[in-house]
Write a sequence for this structure.
């Protein structure tokens, strides 16, 4: 299980606050594992048989299941508890963060001059925050990524880092970097001749999945961008505390100010599903513009609905209806191959992988998975459950 934040920006929680955070971690675990299993049983033994009897067929997709199951008392209870638990996770870390704001700023100032890393931070006070961020507390995180409460504010970065440490129940690893660590190792081993010298992470928040790319490719120059200044200030200090050189930029991934053919690898993790459909198309076109010939675009996301059965589509689409992630389902309804082609990538350059979690399986299983890629998705892919795997797609230029 997670030991919460373990780096130079760690804040001190009082014993009662730690107890509350532990309670919320276990509450989330109960909802996501036990209650989710109970809901599946109710579906199998009650909801689906009634649907078949009424319609003389099985449900075609997740939409039909959602329309039917949302009337069920257990589903209502599950959804209510899950929403409340999500909000309570962030509330559980707010008091120590609010108490530590001044101290965090002092630490960040010291870390900005760290000799262990030569990273940088470039903010743009004139950047227009997209409504997909400014109008929504994405995944019920109060203030989202961009809100500022004081000069040189870092509180939203601290809220994300500490909140997700509780929220993820250990599945993201102690440093929340399991996705980046798993995928960067997979790519390094699968393509030994590919040695990117310049890497860009889109929608990086606090850079938790950015840093592992530096370990995989120590000679690479690492860049990361986001629209939120507070998460970037925090992410820069976080990277400095880890001794990793990352150049953080406040930019919109739909249109950056980097030159054409600037990067060998353009990456994102859990980013596209928070972007409107029009924006996703712009992000992919921009990625193609930024890539050097022979470069790789790669996005870690939840698997598309076309790769899942009706029930698992319904289950993963829950967030789109109840977790303030309205673009979640529209993204998952897209077909990655077609979206990449419309962005200008060649059909025969498309790639997609299902990669074991390095935290749960270790390096050997990731390397082993290189030879066993079959595109099959199961109920462990992208879900908080034992044996979790990460799905990613992209294209070579």
């Amino acid at each position: 299980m997670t030991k919460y934040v373990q780096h130079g920006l760690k804040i001190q929680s009082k014993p009662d606050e730690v107890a509350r955070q532990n309670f919320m971690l276990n509450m989330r675990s109960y909802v996501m594992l036990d209650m989710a299993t109970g809901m599946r049983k109710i579906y199998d033994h009650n909801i689906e048989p009634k649907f078949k009897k009424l319609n003389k067929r099985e449900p075609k997709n997740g939409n039909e299941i959602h329309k039917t199951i949302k009337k069920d008392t257990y589903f209502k209870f599950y959804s209510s508890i899950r929403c409340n638990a999500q909000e309570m996770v962030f509330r559980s870390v707010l008091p120590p963060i609010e108490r530590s704001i001044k101290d965090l700023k002092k630490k960040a100032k010291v870390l900005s001059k760290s000799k262990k890393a030569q990273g940088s931070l470039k903010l743009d006070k004139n950047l227009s925050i997209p409504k997909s961020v400014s109008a929504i507390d994405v995944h019920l995180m109060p203030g989202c990524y961009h809100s500022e409460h004081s000069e040189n504010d870092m509180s939203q970065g601290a809220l994300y880092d500490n909140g997700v440490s509780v929220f993820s129940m250990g599945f993201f690893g102690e440093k929340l970097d399991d996705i980046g660590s798993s995928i960067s190792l997979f790519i390094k081993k699968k393509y030994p001749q590919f040695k990117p010298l310049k890497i860009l992470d889109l929608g990086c928040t606090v850079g938790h999945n950015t840093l592992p790319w530096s370990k995989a490719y120590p000679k690479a120059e690492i860049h990361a961008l986001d629209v939120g200044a507070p998460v970037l200030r925090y992410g820069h200090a976080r990277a400095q505390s880890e001794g990793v050189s990352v150049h953080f930029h406040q930019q919109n991934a739909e249109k950056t100010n980097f030159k054409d053919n600037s990067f060998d690898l353009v990456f994102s993790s859990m980013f596209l599903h928070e972007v409107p459909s029009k924006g996703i198309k712009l992000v992919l076109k921009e990625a193609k513009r930024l890539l050097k010939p022979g470069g790789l675009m790669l996005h870690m996301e939840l698997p598309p609905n076309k790769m899942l059965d009706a029930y698992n589509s319904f289950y993963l689409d829950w967030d789109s209806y109840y977790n303030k992630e309205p673009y979640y389902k529209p993204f998952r309804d897209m077909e990655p191959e077609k979206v990449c082609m419309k962005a200008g990538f060649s059909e025969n350059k498309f790639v997609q992988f299902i990669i074991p979690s390095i935290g749960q399986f270790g390096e050997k299983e990731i390397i082993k998975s290189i030879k066993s890629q079959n595109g099959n998705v199961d109920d462990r892919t992208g879900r908080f459950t034992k044996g979790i795997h990460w799905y990613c797609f992209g294209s070579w230029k």
Q: What stands out?
A: The radius of gyration is 21 Å. The first helix runs from residue 15 to 55. The chain has a mean pLDDT of 94.
